[in-house]
Amino acid sequence: MIKSQTGFETDTSQSSITVKKVNYNGWRDSYILSNGIVEVVVAPVIGRIMQFRRMGEEGVFWENQSMIGRKANSKLTEWANFGGDKTWPAPQSDWPKITSRAWPPPPAFDSLPLEAMEKNGTLVVTSPADPHYGIRTRRKIQLLPNSPAMRITTTFEKIEGKPVRVGIWIISQMKDPAGIYIPVPVKSIFPESYSKQSSGIPKDLRVSNRIISLKRSSETNEKIGSDSSSLIWVGTRQVLRIESPRLPNLEYPDKGCSAEVYTNADPLNYIELELLGPLRVLKPGEQMEQISTYTLRLRTSKDPLADARKALVLDR
User: Fold this and answer.
1) Enclosing H/E stretch for 96
2) Domain assignment of residue 279, given as a range
């Protein structure tokens, strides 16, 4: 056992993980976890994982520069779009029935500070119980030793109130990419390999050799869904794959989607990689969890699609 930088004893299998408490862009009591290959920045005060990056490289998560240093406020009627990675309850179509409003998101999932605890190179951030859903969220954030990968275990725990039908929804806001790619399952439930989730379809949408490819439009917001278990973002220098295995014979939100991509128009030039867990009726005292793995590699080709295909092979 060794001492981490915050004073906790750390198991030797995790001895390559360091944890620092920092002031990140004006958000006090933020954390940076590093394994020497990648690092993750967490800002509990705004309930977000704000950045994921390889050492010496720019981060891949989108951060809203106009929100730097500002605090979340659950009483606002406008959404505080900070960027980064977070969890919401699915499906979104149920929000008006449960919270009496369609937007912004339920407060404990999006606009209340999280309590943070670090031990043995792992950071756990926990929300209060949401006043509408009666659910408390918990996210266990880990970097894998000697690997360019992060694992996040997201748990919804029903604390109080009536049973509620819900699924875990993970949203990662990413910088404007060179390309976005969705692997198509061998037996996709969707005849066109995807589910249309907006009035239009994303820019340059193509399906070829069991890969959906698309880009962000600067003019319109678009969204599609899929029954895939993973999503791939390719930037100028880096490739991120996010994966959460789809479970068989279970009901998924949004007409059966376990993965979705949203592209935002200018001036906020970001896209969202979204992974969804199965729906379940959660009763007080019960909980559900979803594990997501984020793997970040450097590009090796001039062709974004070639790098996406390589990520599919390397990350298996």
Assistant:
1) helix 95-99
2) 2-314
Residue 106: cis peptide before it, omega within 30 degrees of 0: no
Do residues 92 and 103 touch, judged by C-beta distance below 8 A?
no
- For the chain, the average pLDDT equals 93
Check which CATH number belongs to the domain holding 283 and give it.
2.70.98.10
Q: Which residues contact 14 (CB under 8 A, 6 or more apart)?
A: 120, 121, 122, 145
Question: The whole model's pTM is what?
Answer: 0.93
Alpha-carbon torsion angle 184, 185, 191, 192, nearest 10: 0
Digit-coded pLDDT (tens) for 183-220:
999 999 999 999 999 999 999 999 999 999 999 999 99
Structure tokens at 57: 């490289």
Provide the 10 A C-beta neighbour count for residue 297: 18
Q: pLDDT tens, 112-136? A: 999 999 999 999 999 999 999 999 9
Number of domains in the chain: 1
d(CA 222, CA 235): 19
